[in-house]
Design a protein that fits this description.
The chain is globular. The strands form two sheets. The protein has a two-stranded antiparallel sheet. The protein has a two-stranded antiparallel sheet with strand order 3-4. It is mainly α. It folds into two domains: 67 residues; 301 residues, no CATH class.
Length: 389
């Protein structure tokens, strides 16, 4: 056994007395080693759990690549985009607003109202423009005009996709704001700690002058172990999501407007924010744009943790295309200003449609139209596989 005689002076110093007691160093060492072993074991368990999650995600993507015989995942580029990412965490950021997310709940209500306002504008739009709006081709008008959906429930479902998109990128913006707030809190805490340490340095020097042995042998507070932190659910979204300076600026204006009470200003800020993601172009990869990245996340089935096939995804994509078209119309030709719109406004709309709202324009809606066409081809091929001739 190892023992050490420790001198105690704190209480008895004032009376001119000194006391000694015996400390068992072996027991102290064993307790310290036990705490270290517990910490190491916990960290190893966390690391093993994380590695297992990553392994399962990779297996899921590999299985999807092997099972898919249609080329859908190769066409979408999802497998490479989601490589080494947690699909569940990504899909979690594209959910509807939670009860505690008050600003997102307001944004969701505004988005639903904006979709309805945009659809109402179709009734007063000239039929020729509605045919151009429906057409996927740059220089060929569609036979049928774009109109209100016959089933109101379908419009509500389609609008929910836009709601989830708004929540998706506003969560990324809100996470950035929280990071700044945490940085400021840590900075202020560090400043207060330094000030407190400086003020107490004089008192410490007096105690050292009276007797250093007592300070060396006095019991020290137990070191606090780092508490187990919850997983960063938004980490993958934060790292994958990209947006332009204009898109981020519009999102910030929307975020600030949601703190006010002016519903008109909030709706216009929301329309400007969504439009910044619609009226943009990409080069050379479509998944470099924020809206297409969200569409990839929308392709994650939360219940199964797998990617959606063309059959189970095309209807969602069609809903997004419909909403994007009516929102683009509301941005370019507002329904409330129909009486004052001129031929110049009409020509400007047609020029923008030709440049950014049709197939082959390197725009988000161009990528959506291409994906829809590929999904339709897969369905037709699968449906006629037993009757090739």
């Amino acid at each position: 056994m190892l023992y050490k005689t420790v001198k105690v002076q704190s209480f008895f110093r004032t009376r001119g007395l000194q006391k000694y007691f015996v400390v068992n160093l072996v027991d102290a060492k064993i307790n310290k080693n036990a705490r270290v072993e517990n910490i190491v074991s916990r960290l190893l368990a966390e690391c093993k759990s994380t590695q297992q999650e990553v392994k399962e995600e990779l297996q899921t993507l590999e299985e999807a690549a092997k099972i898919d015989k249609t080329g859908w995942f190769k066409r979408t580029g999802w497998l490479e985009f989601f490589k080494d990412r947690n699909l569940v965490h990504l899909a979690h950021q594209a959910r509807a607003p939670d009860r505690s997310e008050h600003k997102l709940k307001l944004a969701a209500q505004l988005a639903e109202g904006l979709i309805e306002r945009s659809v109402k504008g179709l009734a007063t739009l000239p039929q020729e423009l509605r045919r151009w709006l429906r057409s996927a081709k740059q220089s060929e008008i569609d036979v049928r005009p774009l109109g209100r959906l016959q089933n109101p429930e379908s419009q509500a479902v389609y609008a929910s996709y836009i709601v989830r998109f708004v929540c998706f990128y506003l969560r990324v913006l809100g996470d950035k704001e929280q990071q700044i707030m945490r940085f400021r809190q840590q900075r202020d805490t560090a400043a207060r700690s330094e000030s407190s340490a400086a003020s107490s340095s004089d008192e410490d020097s007096e105690d050292e002058a009276e007797g250093s042995d007592a300070d060396d042998d006095s019991p020290r507070p137990r070191r606090r172990t780092r508490s187990q932190q919850a997983p960063d659910m938004i980490k993958d979204t934060r790292e994958l999501f990209t947006w332009t300076a204009e898109q981020k600026s519009c999102a910030i204006r929307l975020w600030d407007a949601l703190d006010g009470d002016n519903r008109g200003a909030q709706t216009e800020a929301l329309l400007a924010s969504i439009s910044s993601f619609i009226f943009t172009t990409y080069h050379p990869v479509a998944l470099s744009t924020g809206l297409i990245q969200f569409l990839a996340v929308l392709g994650i089935n939360v219940d199964t943790g797998r990617l959606r096939t063309a059959k189970n995804y095309s209807y969602m994509l069609a809903g997004i295309v419909y909403c994007v078209r009516v929102l683009a119309l509301e941005k370019l030709l507002p329904g409330g200003q129909r009486d004052t719109q001129t031929e110049e406004d009409r020509d400007s709309f047609l020029a923008t449609r030709h440049k950014q709202l049709a197939d082959g324009t390197f725009s988000p809606i161009s990528e959506m139209i291409s994906m829809l066409a590929y999904g339709k081809h897969i369905r037709l091929t699968a449906g006629n596989s037993g009757n090739a001739y």
